[in-house]
Each structure stands twice: as structure tokens, then as C-alpha cells.
Amino acid sequence: xxxxxxxxxxxxxxxxxxxxxxxPIPAPPRGSTPGKLDGVFFxxxxxxxxxxxxxxNVKPDALSRKYSPSEHTPSSIxxxxxxxxxxxxxxxxxxxxxxxxxxxxxxxPRGTLFVLAELRSEVITWGHTSRLACHGGVHRTxxxxxxxxxxxxxxxxxxxxxxACSTCARSKSSSSAPxxxxxxxxxxxxxxSHLAMDFVTGLPLSHGNxxxxxxxxxxxxxxxFIPLPxxxxxxxxxxxxxxxxxxxxxxxxxxxxxxxxxFTSQVWKAFCSALGATVSLTxxxxxxxx
Length: 290
Description:
Elements: H1 2-5, E1 11-15, H2 34-40, E2 47-51, H3 58-63, H4 80-99, E3 113-114, H5 117-129, H6 138-146, E4 149-150, H7 154-163, H8 166-171, E5 194-200, E6 211-217, E7 223-228, H9 234-249, E8 254-257, H10 261-264, H11 266-275, E9 278-281
Parallel strand pairs: 1-2, 3-4, 5-8, 8-9
Antiparallel strand pairs: 5-6, 6-7
Helix pairs in contact: 5-6, 5-7
């Protein structure tokens, strides 16, 4: 500060606060007398301090503040209506040319054009695949088409078109949860400890039978084929297993079956629980498990 106010010319300094009547005096150096320094410290400087209101002291006040640039979004040169209009000129001209050949058509909302049946597919293609649409969904395609066009059953036609779009089908991400890890059936360590069973139906009549109960040993792949006249109940299935399988091969540890009514009933579960065998049901609509 001394280098700024220590010149020979008188300097005037303006501030936006009332100048103080007394100034803080720096501490005197060691060995000096404080009384002599207090009276002569500011006398060697030739300057004057005046008051200027803050409203008139704009430039110095701005330099004393931290600059904080604010985000500024430049306005577009053309409004969105002009851009949409330029992209709809071609398709609108085709629709207007087709309407010039007819004398009457159903009423449409104000500001829209009625689209004849032979041009509807082309209009939907424009509303779904143009540079303005970029393969949007059903709602975005409808929103774009409704700005200028209208015809009966427009929602149905747009839904069918979007559902059949091959580009959307290839690019659409899956919304389902990822598939879980495979859990193969445990490998048996001895014969007839783990069984797999199911019914074969829809066979032609042979000796009064149309159904075959198939029981396979998962260890040795040996099988029992039990012919039946019709599908049995849960209790009848339990009797068949005792008379044709268990009495020859012993009680199993686990029985794999599908989710048929015979194997999901409480009778079958209680039967297997009484034998000490676990019931393993396959996944729905996945016959490869059994």
C-alpha cells in the first residue's frame, strides 16, 4: 500500500464505505519509541479518502467479487414448429393430392388432414421411421401423427405397425429379469434311488389301454412301462407305484415328475412323505427337466 500512496502527487481514493476516523497503526519495530511513530506514520503519505455510494462504485465493486458464470442456453434459430413443418411437407402434399380427388370424407379435428386407406401405411411409416421419429414407441408415434393427420382406428393401426417393426424388435432391450443359473439334477450313486416318472397319453386304443405310466431309474436308465385305460388319480398312481415298482426295486430317495394334478395333490405328497421320499417337480412348460 505504501508504494501506491507514497508518491509526490496528491492521490484521491474513493470507497463505498464511510472512511474511518482512526486508522490502525502497525506495531513499531523493536527498539523504537511508539509515541513518535503514532503521530507521523500517515503524515508521510499524500492522499485523500472520499466516500462514493455503492451504486456509483460499480467497476471497483465488480472487481472485488468472484466471477461466477451462469449457464446460458442459446435460443434456437428456428422454432420447432418450422422444423416439423419442413419434415411433413412431402407426406402432407401426398395426402392433400389424394383428398383432391374425393368430394366427401369423415370429419376430423381442426388442423388435421384425413388420410385415405391407401396412404395410412405410408403416414405411419413416416411417423415411426423418419428422422423426426427415430423409431419411437406407440405413444410417440401417435403423438407425432396426430399433429397433422387423422383417420378412424388410427391407434389400432399404429399399434400393429410398431409391433411388427423389425428394427424395433432387433434393437429393443429385454425388460425381463436375467435368467437364473442352471441347477442340474444330482447324479444318483446307486440304482433305483432317484426315479423319474410321467404319463404318455394320446395313444391309440390297444387291449383297452390308451395311457402308459413310465417310470425310469435315473442311474441305470432301466424303465417300467405300466399300461392304463385312462389317466389315474393320485391315490391310484400311488397304488401302481407300490405294486409295480417299489415291491421290485425298493423305496427311492427322490421322485421327479411334472406338475400334473396327480403329482401336485396332497395325497401324493403325503404318500411320498410317509415313504421318506422327496418330491421334485419340474419347471412349468419345460419337459426337458424330466
